[in-house]
Amino acid sequence: MSALPAAPDLACPTPRPWPLPWIAPGLLVEEVCTEGHLAEFLALPQRLHADDPAFVPAIQAWLRRRLSARNPFLAQADLRLFQVRRDGEVVGTISALRDPQHEAVHGEAVAFFGFFCCEDDAEVARALLDRVSEVARGWGATRLRGPRNLSRIEKVGLTVEGFDTAPPFLAGHHPRHARRLLEELGFTAHHDVLAYDISLRNAQGKPRPLPPDLAAKAAAVDIPGLQLRPLRWSQWRRDLRLAHEVFVDAFREVPDNTPMPLRQWTSLGGGLLLCTRRHMLQLATVHGGAAGFALCFPEINEALVAARGSLLPLGALRALAAFPNIRTASFKLLGVLPEWRGSGLHAALIAQAIEGVRDSGYDRLEASLIDERNGPMRHVVEAAGMQVYRRYRVYGRAL
User: pTM of the prediction?
Assistant: First the structure.
């Protein structure tokens, strides 16, 4: 039997002959390497979550771009997509990911699974994970970990708390049965990542002040040559490069962190800049050199839900109409170079960013996703009164 031709824009290898072996009666596993397969792959989550009010359908055009060879991350990683059919209908999806940079930095032979979505069926889940395990062994991996869709900041972890709340942008949403299916297959918790939130107004509807300790630290910052300013649209590429310098060094000690190359950082961040206001993006420099940043964005999932997963023909108009009604700002990243830790610079950045959020009219602030092992960052957000509203779990299993 001849192989199916690979779609020209899909980042996948030449497929094996089809069909792949039967895994269980009525089930067939196939690799996603055509546009038709990809359309079915991307459509499954929306179909399975059709009655879930907390589900936010991903924008298909965005996902297609992230899965294509145009994504800089995939220039240095291996990604393969699979789906399971039952009697011709797709009932489960999964990806296998090899990140050589992670292997080099952390010295562990691990592969990742992502895009994990399936019906409440143990045989479907087993077929998906067995296929990915086979691929991972072929790459030389000794452990399988996930969910992780692509980069380490995109759709990481499985929802284990907060099912009734909408997920923040760049985080996933999973049915309650997914956890049980993974654990029945021998997957155990590796670590959790957390989403926090807080109302920016008190019970009387007035603006909630910064915690006194945080406000005092922000006011006491005294660094010669310090400039604290919003991002400048006229030189956004330069400012993103400065922020990237901080991102690489400030997050170097965060568990499981792998430095993100500049091209990948710019590709992911450049599009997000179009969705926010510059006073919500604060950059700190000392004598012109990078020192720290605080990046907040509108919680665009509150608008994207109106698009119903597609920008055409009317999805974009519905999302744009919903954009002014976004009430939540998302504090996505805060970073300070090691030499300025303890100076209060992080407090000054938070204060400036939150002032920009308030001036933009938002009522709620969320912060996601924070690794539970990142004690310093958890201390910052918890000291500010923020509480966990969603919890995601990263699972692992020996191969």
Answer: 0.89
